[in-house]
Request: fold
Amino acid sequence: EAGVTQFPSHSVIEKGQTVTLRCDPISGHDNLYWYRRVMGKEIKFLLHFVKESKQDESGMPNNRFLAERTGGTYSTLKVQPAELEDSGVYFCASSWGQHYGYTFGSGTRLTVV
Amino acid sequence: GENVEQHPSTLSVQEGDSAVIKCTYSDSASNYFPWYKQELGKGPQLIIDIRSNVGEKKDQRIAVTLNKTAKHFSLHITETQPEDSAVYFCAASITNDYKLSFGAGTTVTVRA
Reply:
């Protein structure tokens, strides 16, 4: 079974620019999550989709972040405009139903300079 | 919200020795505690988990213990090997809440 795919793996952008991260979950996984790890700290929850609906977006830092999940398949996370504090590793994960065993992607390392 | 503290932040052990990582949590409603291992260039991978109705769970060289009264849980790795070198994260969650609260991670280095 193919795993969770994220791209790009790395992105370096200037402050004020826009970046879009993409996540392709495991086929059939209705639940898709975005998490972020900043500066070696804990991995923090950003939001949770069930199919195409946002179930919980309580972790989104501010309105510069916009997540979408088209047709309940892949998801994108857009940061516009990017700020220095947005630098970190963004992880996507997926799971099905009440299954807690998330499968994580390899992450996108975002550096804002 | 849930707050998970993880210690130590780094751990260096001799190959063959044991490694122990400890986590505490704040929300007494938490009842699911997974552990993830992240190797270089990869995403976190679930290695073992425990639910609140049990106090200990083992899987080959790894084991987790849970003390609900004290609100802490631990990961034990015995007979460590070089391939155990990685960053380990503990996490906590509440049934029917899919959100995981993670600790800050422990970088484990196994010296040959």
User: Anything to note?
Assistant: The interface with chain A takes residues 4, 6, 32, 34, 36, 41-46, 49, 89, 91, 93, 96, 98-105 of chain B (CB under 8 Å). The CA atoms of residues 45 and 93 of chain B lie 16 Å apart.
